[in-house]
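$ run holo --ligand "coenzyme A" --emit tokens
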Amino acid sequence: MDSTDATDPDDRPDRPRLTVGPVHDAELPALVALWQACNLVMPYNDPLDDIAFARGRSHSEVLVGRLDGRPVASVMAGHDGHRGWLYYVAVDPTCRQQGLGTDIVTAGEDWLRRHGVRKVLLMIRETNTAVKAFYEKVGYNAVPRVVMERWL
Ligand SMILES: CC(C)(COP(=O)(O)OP(=O)(O)OC[C@H]1O[C@@H](n2cnc3c(N)ncnc32)[C@H](O)[C@@H]1OP(=O)(O)O)[C@@H](O)C(=O)NCCC(=O)NCCS
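-- output --
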């Protein structure tokens, strides 16, 4: 991004900065509430099951971004032995447009990089394609792939 672009989050030195780390047990209710507030909880996914399956593993982690100790952002990062994936990218609706979404995506990418991953992928629901503009701002490209699924 052009360093003269006034909308670059890093051009705002006084903006809030996240402290990011693995989610703590005491933060689980707040994390689920964050995901609900961000419309990320689907009827077919139990968020607590998703957290339990991913957190603290050698290949995956659930990271929380905190402002003054309060969880306001999240990302689930993990890899499948080949590519890295990001899920549950979220910023509290009252804290958006200040660069925190960029920060939490960067934190997820950093986690993947530390675990040897060279390319990161993510999926956007068809009902949420407006968020594509956000990911483009933070350096992602849409790729022509068809994702298929089957419950096991
Ligand atoms: C997407 C989300 C994480 C962005 O968080 P944020 O803190 O507002 O992001 P940032 O402030 O870092 O925004 C970075 C840039 O993207 C832009 N942007 C952010 N959200 C956007 C959106 N929904 N549509 C278009 N542009 C967006 C910002 O304006 C900013 O642009 P700028 O650099 O020109 O100022 C947040 O809106 C969110 O939690 N959404 C609901 C959950 C969701 O849809 N997650 C993604 C699931 S795939």
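-- notes --
The CA atoms of residues 21 and 62 lie 8 Å apart.
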